[in-house]
């Protein structure tokens, strides 16, 4: 079990919105001009979302999405 | 905004021309606008390519091709392709006859192209460019295709430009693309037969498209996608590097005490970003409104209306870039926004190659981008502008490019 701590460096975001298309549960694309906001953590129990959030990190064209994987002890 | 900063070109005739940095930023990011450019090539050379798609089809293609631009992939291109290619190209240069001054005289435009086109070929999966003559023919082919893709901005007869583009693409397809495609088809088929993972196949555009083939695609799609990528990944960077060198030389003429900074990677990086701010990949980006829109500024744009976004005047706004925004100044400090302004666009169609060109991506912010890196290596080889011959601008297009920039190398 583990969790992903997701952060978005807004000053780097160029508003492509790809993250919100790939993982809309985690990334919200809104405002004028639109910017991305994200949930702070993704639990590994949601394997599909976990994979898509990792894909977002790979695909973000400006490297604005950073993810720290945190192992959870016990459970 | 002065009237002289607006464009007088057929491609933007009748369109509202927007020059405000904030308005352009808002439109680029908005989901209420889609690609509205490439009138002359959208139904042929560029049909259904990533550049022209929007919505779910754009997302699908981005998810496939985005793997080419991951942080690891970028580092790989730099170490496995860019640096060896530049070293090989400089070695080819060293083998040329020298002039009476002991230096090697050449054309900077062609030299840059040889470097960048070989890297572009590696990323797309085009083999067989080791021979300089083959590489030069490939450059001619891609340049003719590029002129066709951007035919909206041609000052020549569009029909002639398109005829040359299709002839060049046919030659490219026959001599380079098809053999490369067949090689990858075999590798993909073998990998799928053996049930091995994607690590067993090459990491290039053709292979990615084959591995993720969508039955709705036509057989020619990879050829178009590869061609358009080659154009986008080479033309703009090549043009930017030429302009960087010309601007730097002008800067050093006015500040001769700073010439030794050509060996300073940080200075060249700053200079590259500053030059990119003053360089546009297209005279205007054009977007189509899919519904009635009122921008934050109050400007209203009707559904179905196309607008022209002029990055150059936007990138010279004195409020954002200082009172000398119209001048090249490598020491410029820019608050908040990236120092290159809108050079790479923004939103869904932002340039995917930005991290490679600038070296800036999460975790690799100290990496050297393509433009600064090539400039550093050329200067290290003793590059100087020719004292006898002047650069020749390209008069065939509305793009700010050069056909020839004579230089000499004293240290190869």
Write the layout of secondary structure elements.
The complex is a heterodimer of chains A (75) and B (412).
Chain A (H helix, E strand, L loop, with lengths): L1 E7 L9 H5 L4 E5 L2 E5 L2 E3 L3 H13 L5 E7 L4
Antiparallel strand pairs in A: 1-4, 1-5, 2-3
Chain B lengths: L15 E3 L2 H9 L3 E3 L19 H11 L5 H24 L9 E4 H17 L7 H18 L8 H37 L10 H7 L9 H34 L10 H13 L7 E5 L3 E2 L5 E2 L4 E4 L1 H4 L3 H4 L32 H5 L11 H11 L2 E3 L6 E2 L8 E3 L1 E4 L3
Parallel strand pairs in B: 1-7
Antiparallel strand pairs in B: 2-4, 3-11, 4-7, 5-6, 8-11, 9-10
CA radius of gyration of chain A is: 12 Å
Order of SSEs of chain B? EHEHHEHHHHHHEEEEHHHHEEEE
Average the pLDDT over all residues of chain B and give the rounded result. 91
Compute the number of strand runs of chain B. Answer: 11
Report on the biggest sheet of chain A: 3 strands, antiparallel
Q: Could you name the ranges of chain B where pLDDT drops below 50 across 5 or more consecutive residues?
A: none
Shape of chain B: globular
Distance between the termini of chain A: 8 Å
Give the overall silhouette of chain A. Answer: globular
How do the strands line up in the largest sheet of chain B?
1-7-4-2
Mean residue pLDDT of chain A: 78
CA-to-CA gap between the ends of chain B?
A: 46 Å
Subunit organisation of the chains: heterodimer
Q: For the largest interface in this structure, which chains are involved and how many residues does each contribute?
A: A-B, 24 and 34 residues
Instruction: Report helical residue fraction of chain B.
Output: 40-55%
Structural classification of chain B: alpha+beta
Structure explained in plain terms:
The complex is a heterodimer of chains A (75) and B (412). Chain A is α+β, with helices and mostly antiparallel strands. In chain A, 24% of the residues lie in helices and 36% in strands. Chain A has helices spanning 18-22, 47-59, and strands spanning 2-8, 27-31, 34-38, 41-43, 65-71. Chain A is globular. Chain B contains 13 helices and eleven strands. In chain B, helix 4 packs antiparallel against helix 8 (221-254) and helix 8 (221-254) crosses helix 13 (370-380). The longest helix of chain B is centred in the middle third of the chain and has 37 residues, at 158-194. Chains A and B meet through helix 1 and helix 2 of A and helix 1 and helix 2 of B.
